[in-house]
Amino acid sequence: MAACPEVLPLPEAVVGSVLLLVLSSNPGPNIVAIVAPTVTLGVLAIVLGVLGWLFFVVKKKRQTEGTYRPSAEESSGPRSVAAPDALKLPKEERLI
């Protein structure tokens, strides 16, 4: 039988078929079962590492780069009220 010249197999379909045929005929361990979890865990580890790094960078920036708004503090008052006896005067010196 002659193949129709109008119907050409797609390269992706041929490669997929060959790959499926090779993997299914291999009596050894299934390579997909080994590669898929390894790649998934690797990508997950990279994503978690990047997110952790971003978290620490943002946290450090918030500590070191604040905004100074004296008008807001004037209207709301100081954050910590100092105790009235925080600045005690020294004892009076007397002559002998």
Mean pLDDT value: 74
Amino-to-carboxy terminus distance: 130 Å
Structural class: mainly alpha
What percentage of residues falls in helices of 4 or more residues? 55-70%
Q: How big a fraction of the residues is strand?
A: under 5%
Helix-strand sequence: HHH
Mass-distribution shape? rod-shaped
Number of helices: 3
Number of strands: 0
Give structural notes.
- With 96 residues, the protein is mainly alpha-helical.
- The protein has a domain at 12-60.
- It is 58% helix and 0% strand.
- The protein is rod-shaped, with a radius of gyration of 36 Å.
- The mean pLDDT is 74.
Q: Which keywords apply here?
A:
transmembrane; Crumbs homolog 3a; 96 residues; transmembrane helix; 3 helices; mainly alpha; rod-shaped
Give me a quick take on this structure.
The chain is an all-alpha fold. It has helices spanning 11-25, 31-64, 70-76.
In terms of topology, how is this protein built?
Layout lengths: L10 H15 L5 H34 L5 H7 L20
